[in-house]
Known about the structure:
The structure holds 2 protein chains of 2 kinds.
Chain A: H1 3-15, H2 17-47, E1 56-57, H3 64-69, E2 76-84, E3 89-95, E4 107-108, E5 118-122, E6 128-130, E7 133-138, E8 141-149, E9 160-163, E10 175-179, H4 182-192, E11 195-196, H5 201-204, H6 207-246, H7 251-273, H8 277-299
Parallel strand pairs in A: 3-9, 5-8
Antiparallel strand pairs in A: 1-10, 1-11, 2-3, 2-10, 4-8, 5-9, 6-7, 7-8
Chain B: H1 2-10, H2 12-50, E1 54-60, H3 65-73, H4 76-90, E2 92-97, E3 101-103, E4 112-115, E5 120-122, E6 124-127, H5 129-134, E7 139-142, E8 156-161, E9 174-179, E10 182-192, E11 197-200, E12 203-207, E13 212-215, H6 225-235, E14 238-242, H7 246-260, E15 265-268, H8 271-316, H9 318-326, H10 332-353, H11 361-379
Parallel strand pairs in B: 6-13, 8-10
Antiparallel strand pairs in B: 1-14, 1-15, 2-6, 2-14, 3-5, 4-5, 7-10, 8-13, 9-10, 11-12
Helix pairs in contact in B: 2-8, 2-10, 4-6, 4-7, 10-11
Amino acid sequence: MNRNTLFLYLYWISSAKIPLILIALTFLSINILNTYVNKQNVIALESNNMCPSNTLDISKIRNKESLLLQLDTSCFWDMGLLFMDENHAYYVFEGNRYEEIEFNLTSGTFFKNKDSKEAIVGNAVETIKIDKKEYIQVLNQTYAVIGKFGQVENSNAQHMIIINDSDLMNTSTYQYLWINDQSKLKRFKDTYGFSYVQNGISRWISWDFVKKLLLICENVEVICISVLIGILYEKSQHNQNRLLVRIGIVEKKILLRNTLCLSGIELGFFLLLRIPLFYFLFILVLSLFVDFVQTRKGLV
Amino acid sequence: MKETFRFIKHNVIVYSIFVLINSIFMTLLLVLISSFSTSFFKQEAIYTTYEGKKIYQLIDTLFEQEDMDEFREHNGIENLLQYYSELKKECTFVSIYTQPVYVQDAKNSQSIDFDTGNGYALKTIEMSQETFDFYHLRIESGNEIPWKDIKIDDTTIPVYLGSTYKKYYSIGDEISCDYYMKPVTLQIVGFLEKNSFVYYQNQVEHYLDDTIVIPFPYYLETSNKLRQEAFILSMFHGQIVSQLEAEELLSQLNRIGNITNFTSFTLLGNSSLQNQISQMSSILTSNMHLLGIVIILISVLFFIIEASIVSFLNKQRRTKNHLYDLLGMNHTSEKGFFILFTICCTTVLSTFLLRTIEVSTFSFMIMDLLWLIVLHVVLE
């Protein structure tokens, strides 16, 4: 590509002011909405004592062993409140298939095996430091701290201590169960009349519903703006395209030029504003398709 | 009007996209504002309830059977009754307790506390009017419980139900049950607002959505001494809200105890409650900050997006408008009609998206109208 062609491409790109603004703003709005959803998820999780909104409250179960037996091979974890003191809440944790459990830690690692006698603690919990390692004492027993969580300042999670020691599970009061298999989780809820553990922000702002709504809005916005970009880009290039036809440039070359310019703009903003690859590809394909159809129609 | 329709028909794709984008924006804005206001009002409610107040737990020390026997022998019930009435005169006493009611059949499976084998025990919470007012609980529909008319021997008790009961019962319906070992009828007089909660059993968020709220009797006189004893001991469980330090309050309580001859009680501090409240408050503040920033950013972004589309649409009819101006014809009504038509389309679409969020259509339309006017004024 020589210098003159490059300038020509830059001129073509700059002549499409509205599509340029639209692409930038769409990418930015997707970025903002996604960041918001992630941050709100963290706040919701931390105000619900690190329990996802589909965690079951199984405190009233009489025979927990038989319940856990029904879980077969499903990935699950079970957390119980041991006790609360002035500043902290102490929880006991057990699960199966630890490698599949996703836990939102800010540093360190999650438990790897059952009854590892380790602890993960909130960022505001004071630990005992010996030789660059951290420990915590719970009920006269010392547990090595292997991970930390809690991003929201002074949230419930920041003051939580979770120990991986199933021996203490029987002494816990409130007990929560999370199962990876959603259909099993729903069946347990209906059969045993369990309710979901939903405290704090997640419950007050109906976060599960709002999250779905945001996703719908985002997808509709992506579709609308992609079509609009295609239409408006063609409109902005309409006169130039007709001129090019008149001076003898073939339709194929014009379409290629449009495709290159539009892809270039979108790729540039994609690299600049970082949106999920899926969205970028979707916008790119749809806007190029609409532009292709419109340009062909305009050249007839 | 005809001109507007002709214009819309001519630019049907761009106009439809504009309406869709506007609906998305209004939906997002309403959802975010609604979340922001929920956080704001929750924080306000927490401040009003707990700010500057110290909360202490009052419990009796009648743990053993011997203690109970001695309590009964020494005219304990009368003394406790007197103590309770003196206490209410001198402090804010938030009386709250759980006493399950037993029913044969439970319509609302979420409300079951436990299965008794031949029926179910439902989740209930007993409270006094002071408690109801202290926690700023509100009813969504129905009438107020006549708190001051409730007697121990009443066989029909007016109750509030939590919000999850709305699917199963209506106001005026009755539930037959056993309550304090006696068959009674609970008459539904109202439903609590969704997500109503109180501080109970060391939990700052004890939700009442699947709970029956039963009022404590105002008149405690009865010939059934056992029932009276059960009630008064339940009513004695609660929190004292005071501005006094623990020692000062304890000496005040001891003074009342000496006057009324009831000293079988102890006072517990509630430091974990203060921490839980402060944590809840921090979460709400963080949430409001986050929502505030997102609302501003989304508004700015969508304003520019919509302005770009409107400016494109304006460009399409610029020549025609210019011609009208030259001919001295007024075309502002066309613009007004364009805005109104857009609002109607947006409202229909957004109502579909927001069907589970209670937002009045009128306020939605006003908001959209203001938004579109600002948009057009800026572009003029």
